[in-house]
TrEMBL record:
This is DUF1559 domain-containing protein. Residues 33-336 form the DUF1559 domain. It comes from the Bacteria. Pfam families: N_methyl (PF07963), SBP_bac_10 (PF07596). InterPro entries: DUF1559, N_methyl_site, Pilin-like, Pre_pil_HX9DG_C. Gene3D superfamilies: Glycoprotein, Type 4 Pilin (3.30.700.10).
Length: 358
């Protein structure tokens, strides 16, 4: 009895099957990536909620909001890097041991604080951040304190501000105005639900030899210099708007200041009020995910100062997460209007903002 012959696949049939599988994978991959990003964004929101809760615990104990930077008594070789707002919140982030290990009379970059400075807190890193930390201290910070609106309208107008200016302390050489003080929620007269307290900022792209242009994928991790002069505390809205427009109109071929790429989110537990605000703070000058730009009269084009556009950025498509002063977290779109972005960035300018405008 003759056996039945088994018919195999032809080459054409095999190629068709492979093509169908390839199409299915191509259709599935974006959905998988989208689901993963949704999970990362959800974790990012949770991180900001924990930070917001830590602030409220701090206020309940101290009756004031945490200062942007601590004053300290000993001046070492790295005097521009004192302990910042994140270090103050350590007990509220369930890091009491790390808080107790901090030497508060010295800065974050001093050897006395290396153990703390080199310890990475996951709650301070957005899961969507894909840039490795710098070799030293091998840590990074993605959540930044809101320093306020454009410098032209008012320096330090955000809910996280320096303590009263101390010529012998951490903010020596920094700006001095009535916003430099210790205050509580009562000073957030624009409303805690309408005032951003923290948002996101991508870490720096590190030192590079090849140029980074404003049209590249790394552009949001560097500063771009402008020739525009900013007059702080002048109340000049037209000047503030012109600075933003100058920053937005930078040609895609302009080369970044490469030295600035090493300082975005560099020392997670530090903050300074003279030339290093960009390390742990941002402001509401340029709209989310725009470029960070320096003014012609900046304190330091490498480090980022209070006159500059220290822009909120993230890897989330379409916007950034923001923790409001009441502890809630909102997703702010890149398309938010400039006046609204300015308004929710200040605590005491008396703007009236509708919740459906952002």
């Amino acid at each position: 009895m003759r056996g039945r012959l088994r018919r195999g696949f032809t080459l054409i049939e095999l190629l068709v099957v492979i093509a169908i599988i390839a199409v299915l994978i191509a259709l599935l991959l974006p959905a998988v990536q989208s689901a993963r990003e949704a999970a990362r964004r959800s974790q990012c929101v949770n991180n900001l909620k924990q930070i917001g809760l830590a602030v409220h615990n701090y206020v309940s104990q101290q009756n004031v909001l945490p200062p942007f930077a601590q004053n300290y008594t000993n001046v070492g070789p790295w005097q521009a890097w004192p302990m910042g707002w994140s270090a103050s919140l350590l007990p509220g982030l369930e890091q009491t041991n790390m808080y107790n290990a901090t030497n508060w009379v010295w800065g974050a970059w001093e050897q006395m604080n290396y153990t703390v400075t080199k310890s990475q807190l996951n709650v301070l890193v957005c899961p969507s951040e894909n840039m490795p930390p710098p070799a030293w201290p091998n840590t990074k910070l993605n959540y930044m304190a809101n320093l306020g609106g454009p410098a032209s309208l008012g320096v330090w107008s955000g809910p996280i501000a320096p303590m009263k200016h101390d010529p012998n302390g951490s903010d020596s050489g920094g700006p001095t105005n009535s916003n430099c003080a210790s205050f509580g929620f009562e000073s957030v007269i624009d409303g805690t639900s309408n005032t951003v307290m923290f948002s996101e900022k991508l870490v720096g792209g590190g030192l590079r030899t090849a140029p980074v242009t404003s049209g590249s994928n790394l552009a949001k991790r560097y500063f771009f210099n402008t020739s525009f002069t900013v007059n702080g505390d002048s109340g000049n809205a037209a000047q503030a708007l012109q600075f933003v427009q100058t920053c937005k109109s930078i040609p895609a071929t302009l080369t970044a200041n490469l030295n600035s790429g090493q300082y975005f989110g560099f020392l997670w537990n530090s903050a300074a009020c003279n030339t290093n605000e960009n390390n742990s703070g941002y402001n509401h000058t340029n709209t989310p995910n725009g470029l960070s730009c320096t003014a012609a009269n900046t304190q330091n084009a490498d480090l980022g100062g209070y006159m500059d556009a220290l822009t909120a950025t993230s890897n989330h498509p379409g916007g950034v997460n923001a923790c409001m002063t009441d502890g809630s977290v909102r997703f702010i779109k890149d398309t938010i209007s400039i006046p609204t972005w300015w308004a929710i960035g200040t605590r005491n300018q008396g703007e009236v903002v509708s919740a459906d405008s952002y």
